[in-house]
Each structure stands twice: as structure tokens, then as C-alpha cells.
Design a protein that fits this description.
Aldehyde Dehydrogenase, Chain A, domain 2, coiled coil, globular, NAD-dependent aldehyde dehydrogenase, 2 domains, ALDH_GabD1-like, single chain, Aldehyde Dehydrogenase, Chain A, domain 1, 7-stranded mixed sheet, Ald_DH/histidinol_DH, 6-stranded mixed sheet, 15 helices, alpha/beta
């Protein structure tokens, strides 16, 4: 079955690709293994030079690369260009900091009696990247850049609806001077992943995607005693207390929930508002959601583009419908527009009962769920009443409330008076069913290294 690049704004199939054969997959895995034996011996300066060149290419060609992402998965053109530029920033960050992050760490308590003890970080080998379509460049580069700087090589199994992006990323690394086997794209279906993970030449795997996919990859890797990093779904709480900057909180709630057309794991999916301000907050939220312009993602005036696939928009519509049938109140949106494309309107749900899909499922589209609470205790209880624990955003000027949220919210990240952000300088990852391990910062580059303990005693 061909891998297709389909424009989600029109439904038009732009280009098709034949999946790799088993023989071609074998060739690429062997090339990765051969390249790793040489690449791991390169110095940080050589790796840095190539990574900085990759950053330059991304910056110089951000508009064309962004256009490909918009064409394939529907994000607005402005956000696609910004995503490519962010990848350049990530490349520069690891080019400049990898050597420091991976420097030998002396164990000072053991530097005595003729002993020297330290930890050395060494690359593991070829890693399999299983990446999603929603941030088709950034999700890849935030693993590939640290991995390559650490001395690993990578094989990318990208989402099947963004093949042109996947090939473009490989091309960037090749033109930056990386060896042919350092980063390779595999145009394959999900049915080929298990055999690749089982291959003894593949030493680790990372996946960003759904919880079911994460469970399968973790099980397959675990059976073969290989480390994994999983960044899975989220149903992030966005908590607003009476002391918050009201207007900024409303604006950020809308921006967060509609980021990437609502297709982000760390969107403000559950907006939890104290009852003192809930009525006015909800009114303003609905007002701002209704004012958003939905349309052609290439039009610079568009704020919400189409969802990535027909199946995606059908799932969102079904989740909203079932939530309303369960008793949730539809405040705006909820009706798919006529015409071509995978469009879904900005939607707000309120008074959501416990058995509604909006309560526990991740809705991957521009749908905000609003909840009223009467106290900090109730806000924390509701925030934690989810199988997910990726990130959270809390809005309060009260220091005591702030400390309680930081201490008690069950999530990999807590942002106070700020929208959750994925940026090279800080670690990114979740808790509970949102996965494990960390990407970005020094944690991200150390994840796929062997922390080798070395103890040298004088003869």
C-alpha cells in the first residue's frame, strides 16, 4: 500500500511513495550499524560543525520547508515556518552544549587513596525514532540533534501522512555533511516496526504518539532489553484562580487550546476555573474562540487550519457528540462545516459529567472543556483525575496556591502563569500514562547514552 501525501485542506492527494521493501530496510539498518562504528569516534568539534550547518540550512530554507508541513498536515504556514526555525535553534543548542552535557563526571568522594572515579557517557548505537505528524519537524529534531551530537545514529519511522517532511529532514542532514547512514528515513508502515525493534543492531527506540502505540513499543523493546523514551498523550489541566491576571489567562487559554489547530499533547485541554470568576471567564473564552478565523492554512489571516486527517476530524466530532449525549453543555462550535477539507470549528464544552469522553479522553482538536471548582483542593483533585500526566499550567498570584500546585499536581511539568512550552533548554516529558523519560536539555542527550562507571586505582 502506497504512502500518500494528502492536503488536509482540500483532500487532494499530492504525491505517493512506495514503502521500502524488506531488502531495502535491511540495507538501511546495516548502513546505520556500519556508520555508527565510525561516527562514535568523531570528536565534538566535527559533530558541532555539521550540526551548525544543519541549523543554517533550516534557517535559510524555513519558508520552503514550512510550506511542505502545511501542505501535508495542515498547520498554519506561519506556525510551520516558526517550527522549522525552532529546529534550527535546537540544533544550535546541542551543537554548543553537547560536549559540556556529556563531559566525564568526577565522583569527588572517591578521589582519594590513589583512586579516580568518574562517569563517562558513551553512545548506545543506532536508535529508532517513531515520530508523529503534529510537529513533524520539531519532534524529530529534538531527538535527532542530541542523538547525533552524542555519537548515535538514527533511523526515522515518521507518520505516514508526512513523507515529504521525513525525506526533507534526511536531506537536511545529508547536505549538512553528516554521513549517509547517520540519519535515514524509513518510508514504511507500522507493521514493520516490531521487526526493526527486535533487530540486534538497533539499540534503543523513542516514540511520540498515542498511549496504545507507546504500550506496544515499550513491550517490544522491553522484551528485547532495549531502552525507550515515550512521550504519549495528555489531557493537560489549565487552572485559573481568582488572583490570576484575568485577561492574560483567557488569552493564553485560547492560544494554548488552539495551538497547532488543537493538535498538541500539551494543549490546555481541561480548563479548570474557580467559581468566583468562572462565569465571566467562560463568557470571554467562548467569545474569543468564536472570533478565530478558520480556513486555508496558507492564508496568513487564518488562525485555525484543518485537522491532519479525515479520521482525525471524525474522531473529534464523535467525542464531542458523545460528550453532549452524556450531558455536557455545548457552548459554541460542534458542527462541522460543509465543503472539502478536514475542518472542525473551535468548540467549548461545559458542565461535563464524569462519564463523558471529554472528561477522560484526549480530544485532539480545537475543543476546550471548562470545569468549575470551589477551592484549591478541588482544582488539584480534578487536575489529577486523569490517566494522563504530561504537563499543566496554573494561574495564580497567591504564593501558597502556587506551591501547592507545584507540589501536588501529578505531571511531568508545571508552568505557573505561563503556557506550557517545549524548548531546548528545559526537560520535556510526562508521568502516569503520558510516558516516561525526558527529551531536551541535558536530560535529553543523556537518555540514550551508557553512563559508564570508571574507577581507576593506582597500581
Amino acid at each position: 500500500m502506497a504512502i500518500a501525501s494528502t492536503n488536509p485542506a482540500t483532500g487532494e492527494t499530492v504525491k505517493t511513495f512506495e514503502p521500502l521493501t524488506d531488502e531495502q530496510i535491511e540495507e538501511k539498518i546495516q548502513r546505520a550499524a556500519d556508520t555508527f562504528r565510525q561516527w562514535r569516534r568523531t570528536g565534538f568539534e566535527e559533530r558541532k560543525e555539521k550540526m551548525l550547518r544543519a541549523a543554517e540550512i533550516l534557517e535559510d530554507e524555513a519558508e520552503e520547508l514550512g510550506r511542505i508541513a502545511t501542505l501535508e498536515m495542515g498547520k498554519t504556514y506561519a506556525s510551520a515556518v516558526a517550527e522549522v526555525q525552532k529546529c534550527a535553534r535546537g540544533c544550535r543548542f546541542y551543537a554548543e552544549n553537547a560536549e559540556r552535557f556529556l563531559a566525564d563526571e568526577r565522583i569527588e568522594d572517591l578521589q582519594q587513596d590513589g583512586a579516580t572515579a568518574y562517569v563517562r557517557y558513551e553512545p548506545l548505537g543506532p536508535t529508532l525514532e517513531i515520530m508523529p505528524w503534529n510537529f513533524p519537524y520539531w519532534q524529530v529534531f529534538r531527538h535527532a540533534a542530541p542523538g547525533l551530537m552524542a555519537g548515535n545514529v538514527a533511523l526515522l519511522k515518521h507518520a505516514s501522512n508526512v513523507p515529504q517532511v521525513a525525506l526533507a529532514i534526511e536531506d537536511v542532514f545529508l547536505r549538512a555533511g553528516f554521513p549517509e547512514g547517520a540519519f535515514q528515513t524509513l518510508l514504511i508502515g507500522s507493521d514493520k516496526v516490531k521487526a526493526i525493534i527486535e533487530d540486534e543492531r538497533i539499540r534503543a527506540a523513542t516514540l511520540t504518539g498515542s498511549e496504545p502505540a507507546g504500550r506496544m513499543v515499550a513491550a517490544q523493546a522491553g522484551e528485547n532489553i532495549k531502552p525507550t523514551v515515550l512521550e504519549l498523550g495528555g489531557s493537560d489541566p489549565f487552572i485559573v484562580m481568582p488572583s490570576a491576571d484575568f485577561e492574560k489567562a483567557v488569552e493564553t487559554a485560547v492560544a494554548s487550546r488552539t495551538l497547532n489547530n488543537g493538535q498538541s499533547c500539551v494543549n490546555a485541554k481541561r480548563i479548570i476555573v474557580h467559581e468566583e470568576i468562572a462565569d465571566e471567564f467562560t463568557r470571554r473564552l467562548v467569545e474569543k474562540m468564536e472570533a478565530l478565523k478558520v480556513g486555508d492554512p496558507m492564508d496568513e489571516a487564518t488562525e485555525i487550519g484543518p485537522l491532519s486527517t479525515p479520521d482525525g476530524v471524525e474522531e473529534v466530532a464523535d467525542q464531542v457528540r458523545r460528550s453532549v449525549e452524556a450531558g455536557a453543555k455545548l457552548l459554541t462550535g460542534g458542527e462541522r462545516p460543509e465543503g472539502p477539507g478536514n475542518f472542525y470549528p473551535p468548540t467549548v464544552l461545559a458542565e461535563i459529567p464524569e462519564d463523558a469522553p471529554a472528561r477522560y479522553e484526549e480530544i485532539f482538536g480545537p475543543v476546550a472543556s471548562v470545569y468549575r471548582v470551589s477551592s484549591v483542593d478541588e482544582a488539584i483533585e480534578l487536575a489529577n483525575d486523569s490517566p494522563f500526566g504530561l504537563s499543566s499550567s496554573v494561574w495564580t498570584a497567591d504564593e501558597g496556591e502556587r506551591e501547592r500546585f507545584v507540589e501536588e499536581i501529578e505531571a511531568g511539568m508545571v508552568y505557573v502563569n505561563k503556557m506550557t512550552e517545549s524548548t531546548p533548554e528545559v526537560p520535556f516529558g510526562g508521568a502516569k500514562n503520558s510516558g516516561y523519560g525526558r527529551e531536551l536539555s541535558r536530560f535529553g542527550i543523556q537518555e540514550f547514552t551508557n553512563a559508564k562507571m570508571v574507577w581507576v586505582q593506582d597500581a
